[in-house]
Design a protein that fits this description.
single chain, GMP Synthetase, Chain A, domain 3, Rossmann fold, 2 domains, three-stranded mixed β-sheet, 11 helices, binds adenosine-5'-triphosphate, binds magnesium ion
Length: about 375
C-alpha cells in the first residue's frame, strides 16, 4: 500500500497551490490578499478550503473556485476537496476596514493626500516632487500612488520591478531618499478600469497595511483624479492630516477645486491649500514669461474658497522630461535648471509641514 502523506504536509501543499491562484485581473494571489479563512486536511486526506472574498463582481467567486479546483487536483495524495466561498459585498468589508484603520499605518505621523478635481493637471508630478523635496528637507517621507485609473509613479521614478516581499510584507522601493509604493506594482495594467473599482479598496488596504513603511513623518498619497466615490472612500480609509489640491490657472479650474474642497470637508480632512501647476511659461530662449493658461487663477481660487495658496509650479519642459526620465525635477543635480523648482517645492513642503504640525492634536504635543 502506498504511503499517504500526513495531513500537515498536505495542508502545506494546499497552501502552496492556493498561492498560485490569482484574483481575476490582479497579479496578487488569494492567500496574500487574505481571502483564505481556513484550510484543513482530514485524516483521510480530504481538504476543506474556505474563502471570504469582498467583491461586487458576481463571477469572481466561480472563477476563483475553478482555479482552486484545478490546482488542488494536481496534488498527489489528496483524497478529495471541498471549496467553500463566501462572496461578501465590499460595503461590509469597507466598514470593517474603516473601523480598523487607525492601526493601518502605525509608524506614519501624517498622511497627506494630493488631489485634483479633474485629470491631467499635474497631480502626480506635484505629489512626486513634493515627496522628494520633503525628503531632501530631512523629513522621513513615503509616496503612495493610489491612482486606480493610471498609476504613474512607477514611470516617474523609473521603477519597473515588482516589490520584494519579506516576512509576508511588501518592501517599498527607495528612490531619492523616499519610500515608494504604487498600485501599479500590484494591479495588472491590462485589467479594465471598470473591473478595478471593486478590487481597489482591498488592494489599497494592502498597500497601506501590508507595506513595511517603517517610521515616516509624511506619507504623500497621490489620489485618483476626480471627486467621486472612489476618492471619497480612499480619504476615509486612513486618518489624513490634510490634503493639497492641485489646479491649473484657468478660471474654470475653480469649479473642480471647489468640488475637491467639498469632498474633503465631508470627511473632515483639512485642506492645507491649493497649488497652481502649469503656471506661466518661461521661454528657454528669450526668458520672457507667458501666462499660457491665464494668470492668477490658483490664487483667486484659493481666495474664493478661503484656503491657503501654497505656490505656483511653472510650466517647464524640464518638469515633464524629469517625470518621463524617471527622475522628478527637484532631484536633478544642483547645476541643472531645477533651482526654481527646488524653491517652489520647498515652499510648498514648508506649508505642508506648517499646516500639518499646527493641526496636530494637542494630546500629541510634548510640553
Ligand atoms: N509644470 C509642468 N510643466 C511641464 N509639464 C508638466 C508640468 N506638470 C505636469 N506636467 C506634465 O503633464 C502631464 C500630466 O501630468 P501628471 O501626470 O502629473 O498629471 P495628473 O494630474 O497626475 O494626471 P492624471 O489625471 O492622468 O493622473 C505629464 O506628462 C507631466 O510630465
Ligand atoms: Mg496622475
Amino acid at each position: 500500500m502506498a504511503e499517504t502523506p500526513d495531513s500537515d504536509a498536505l495542508e502545506q501543499r494546499v497552501v502552496a497551490e492556493l498561492r498560485r491562484v490569482t484574483f481575476p485581473g490582479m497579479t496578487r494571489d488569494i492567500v496574500s490578499f487574505g481571502f483564505v479563512q481556513r484550510i484543513e486536511v482530514s485524516g483521510d486526506g480530504e481538504a476543506l478550503v474556505r474563502l471570504r472574498i469582498p467583491t461586487h463582481n458576481p463571477g469572481a467567486g466561480d472563477q476563483i473556485r475553478d482555479q482552486i479546483e484545478k490546482r488542488l487536483a494536481t496534488i498527489d495524495g489528496l483524497g478529495g476537496h471541498r471549496v467553500e466561498i463566501e462572496v461578501a459585498a465590499p460595503r461590509q468589508a469597507q466598514q470593517k476596514a474603516i473601523a480598523q484603520d487607525s492601526d493601518l499605518l502605525p509608524g506614519v505621523r501624517h498622511v497627506v493626500a494630493v488631489a485634483s478635481g479633474k485629470g491631467g493637471v499635474g497631480k502626480s508630478t506635484v505629489a512626486a516632487n513634493l515627496a522628494v523635496r520633503l525628503g531632501q528637507l530631512g523629513h522621513r517621507t513615503g509616496l503612495l500612488d493610489a491612482d486606480i485609473y493610471g498609476p504613474s509613479v512607477p514611470m516617474m521614478f523609473g521603477i519597473d520591478d515588482k516589490p520584494r516581499v519579506e516576512a509576508g510584507r511588501l518592501l517599498p522601493f527607495e528612490r531619492y531618499g523616499i519610500r515608494i509604493m504604487s498600485l501599479g506594482f500590484v494591479l495588472d495594467v491590462d485589467t479594465p478600469v471598470i473591473w478595478r473599482g471593486p478590487m481597489v479598496m482591498k488592494a489599497l488596504e494592502q498597500l497601506m497595511g501590508d507595506v513595511r513603511w517603517g517610521d515616516l513623518d509624511y506619507l504623500i498619497v497621490d489620489l485618483p483624479p476626480g471627486t467621486g466615490d472612489a476618492q471619497l472612500t480612499l480619504t476615509q480609509k486612513v486618518p489624513m492630516s490634510g490634503a493639497v489640491i492641485v489646479t491649473t490657472p484657468q478660471d474654470v479650474a475653480l469649479i473642480d477645486a471647489r468640488k475637491g474642497l467639498a469632498m474633503f470637508r465631508k470627511v473632515n480632512v483639512p485642506v492645507l491649500g491649493i497649488v497652481e501647476n502649469m503656471s506661466g511659461f518661461v521661454c528657454p530662449h528669450c526668458g520672457e514669461e507667458t501666462a499660457v493658461f491665464k494668470a492668477g487663477g490658483g490664487e483667486r481660487t484659493a481666495e474664493a474658497l478661503g484656503v491657503e495658496f501654497l505656490g505656483k509650479v511653472p510650466l517647464d519642459p524640464a518638469v515633464m522630461s524629469g517625470g518621463d526620465a524617471g527622475r522628478p525635477v527637484v532631484a536633478e543635480p544642483e547645476e541643472q535648471a531645477a533651482s526654481v523648482h527646488r524653491e517652489v517645492f520647498a515652499a510648498i513642503a514648508e506649508a505642508v509641514v506648517q499646516g500639518t504640525e499646527s493641526r496636530k492634536k494637542p494630546s500629541l504635543r510634548i510640553l
